[in-house]
Amino acid sequence: MIESTQEHSGVRDVVIIGGGPAAHRLADSLHARDSGRALRVTVVGEELHHPYDRVALSTRLADGAADLTLQPSSMWDDDHIRLVTGERVVAIDREAQTATTSSGRALHWDELVFATGSSAPVPELPGRDHARVYRTIDDVDALVAETRELADRHGRPAQVVVAGGGLLGLEAAGGLAKLGAHAAVVHSGGWLMSAQLDEGAGRALGRIISGQGIGLHLGTRPAAVLIEADAVVGVELTNGRRIDADLVVFAIGISPRDELARDLGLELGPRGGIAISTACAASAARIWAIGEVASFEGRCTGLVAPANAMAEVVADRLLGGAAEFTSVDDATKLKLSGVDVASFGDALARTEQALEIVYADPARGLYQKLVMTDDAKTLLGGIFVGDASPYASLRPMLGMQLSSEPAAYLSASGMEAPAGDELPASALVCACNNVAAGTIRDAVNGDEHTEGCTELGALKSCTRAGTQCGSCVPLVKKLMETELTKAGITPSRALCEHFELSRQELFESIRVLELTSFDEIVARLGNGRGCDVCKPVVGSILATQHGSYILDGGRGGLQDTNDRAMANMQKDGTYSVVPRIPAGEITPDKLLVIAQVATDFGLYTKITGGQRIDLFGARLDQLPDIWKRLVDAGFESGQAYGKALRNVKSCVGSTWCRFGVQDSVAMAVQLELRYRGLRSPHKLKFGVSGCARECAEARGKDVGVIATDQGWNMYVGGNGGFQPAHAQLLASDLDDETLLKFIDRYIMYYVRTADRLQRTARWIEDIEGGLDHVRDVVVNDSLGLAAELEAAVDAHVGSYEDEWAATLADPERLRRFRSFVNAPDLPDPSIAQVPDGRGQMRPATPEERERGEAVLISGASIPVRKVDA
Fold this sequence. Notes:
30% of the residues lie in helices and 20% in strands. It is α/β, with parallel strands linked by helices. A five-stranded parallel β-sheet has the order 4-3-2-8-20, covered by helices on one side. The longest helix is centred in the N-terminal third of the chain and has 18 residues, at 137-154. The chain is globular and about 95 Å long.
């Protein structure tokens, strides 16, 4: 039976063969543009997965569980757009206009779009059947599993040889090395990425890659995969050398999937692929091709930007437009094994009489080059290795005249960068999504009908700029800030009117200058007397850096009410008391102490969502007496009042639970005792689950730890609150020691760089590079800060002192806890409570006070009851 809609409704059928990024972009564009629903779109993908981001496969290789699904995905719920997964189109009938799938499904088409992508070739050589490829999610998952299985089998790291020193090969080698394998790269070129980089850049990259322990064999290629007892034992190279190996991966390029097109008799490119016109049309009517299978001007390309551009052209054409695809934008920016690499335009200086301006430091693996016209005025291209920071600003200026000498645009030159060239409206800022500078400016400014997008997140959403590879985000932000400035809106990062510095800048300045008091800080770095914004921030920074009692040294006046009282103030002026109960683990004797304290002081008791017990209704003057009894029983402050670690929630773990695979309680206790009292930009909550059933809800926490058979998975950036966020996987299968190191680095990096009152989820969203950058800092030590961040936590642990124990030991500190300075023994007579009907007391409402139903709380007015032990 042929599936069709035309005979019933007049709706035209569009069948897209392939379920990759190009197909996703075309379906998304048609969904957005086809408001009249004139088309019915069917996408047929042979993989079981929804369309995913192939550019991010290295992320999947690094953590083994990254969700790469392309967004938006809501279009698949539309009746006019259908996604068929796990099926392959095996035959096409041009006369009947049908496409038959591997399951026997026959799909009618009025328009047929090839988006079949490409495959990873393995050359004809002995042992090729034992080789692996790096192309799909399933390939990556299989590589992860096999690498770990080989390590277990041999009792040593797996030895992996990757054939191919281009983008895919280096991604594969770097990802496998992160998994613990001993990786080596074999590349036929004389230097790495020889198709994109010149010799100087390629050798600079090679120095960095080899410095990471990845072996390089250049100027040669595999001649045979060596097999013994049906297992890989090595690779023989064309230069006669042998490399021992347990696993061989080929990533030597791509071959367009044009088999169906060949059978159909379509015109092909000289190197394969479906030849297309500027309309992205194939040689037969009503047949189109986009993405890696499309050959434009004799060339197929595997980059995101041209695939997206082709998809937009076809979407326009299917709806009656006249859009054209005129050129291939092969600009590339990526991070390979933690190394920034970028190239654009005529990077290899093939233009006649082109001038090359190069700054290189081979010892540091730094290489920057601009290609200019012979008069050194017009930008033709560029290459960056090691430091690609100029790329975002220079890429849109391709073909334009620079306003300053070229070297000034290179960060390695040491020259002062120009203030900035005004990009024309047509300058392409986001190549992936074809977003021009004018589009971004218009979105920021808005019009009479639409408010402008004045925040980066909103701007990315409404323009799509920066939502794919992310390399243009710095320039998008710069354009936004420039437009806001033109409109008289100053985009400021100042902490407040007293400090022009951001919180991050203030933190670093205080640390470098070794300032220890607010007066010193405001004299050196700010002005005035401070305010309710900057004072708590400075107090928190000083507490983090010096670890001393938070209210000493004049710092008491910097804190807000809760920190000054070391308790949370409630609506009726009383305070809550929250003793620390690490991981929710508590002895019966300690439970008795809490019960007796609550009874003797008439406190409302509540078990919190964080596995602690909260005691409400304590007067300010009662806090020392309450805490004296709690401290004597072995409790300490739970710091529910501070911007600090609140709690570490835990399931019962392997000690008792039949499903537990690790001791989650012991780990949670260790984490809570390690990070207790550490002041941060906002409160922190951790969770530790003993298995994948996730009873501790760890992925809703700032740091989530979930047990695996191999160790612990570490998740970051989970938040509840007004803007809930699910935590994201940072690293997998960590042992205890590595887990603690990574948490040390993550927490201290957040403490140092986050804005005031910024939760970890928003911090990860806002920091340049997002989660990938955070992962590089924490896991790969890309900034060289690992030892310093770990030392900062160690210093905190070494200097930690319970705040309430320190308060009780000092009569001067106790003077803060008096209701009235001139009558220290008089309790606050305004506090009144009523029974709540469930056996406890609660604050009285104004109406209850007026009706005389309230009980004034003045020490002995609450009847006390002895708890029998």
